[in-house]
Design goal:
alpha/beta; Glutaredoxin; 6 helices; 7 strands; 23% strand
Amino acid sequence: MKLIARSLMLLMLSWSSALFAIQLEKPLPAPDFTQADPESWINSPPLTLEQLQGKVVLLDFWTFDCWNCYRSFPWMREMEQRLAGEAFTVIGIHSPEFSHERVRANVEVKVKQFKLHHPVMMDNDFGYWQAMGNRYWPTFYILDKQGQVRSVYIGETHADTPQAKQIEADIRALLEE
């Protein structure tokens, strides 16, 4: 777990503010999810990366008071619909900034309001955030079918933007592997 955090941290430290994406030259193993308690998962029982083997996974780090996060949801829902039936899934990682965002009932209301149907892991202790070396909301990590991080995208994303198109292209390429 520390390997990915250190590697991504070094990459992020070298970024300029104009760079929002990284294509990893060498895939890095993603750490397994840090929350195994059923109360920490919404829309799903607790998952492991092993259970997701064979699927391309988009990890979405978000928090419900982050407007950049929730303004990305329409694009994400549209992409999920286009890729329905493919070996693809989104896993939301809700890492709260404020204390009221740690309350499960509040997160459940927002998941329903934002029409999120994919699994959401509540990362209240920032365990997964830290394991991934994450620093920003929203951040999207794309994992290949073996659970390896292949690319990272930071920032609000809308349909038909260069970032949205590149994310979907990355996912489709990994689906073909």
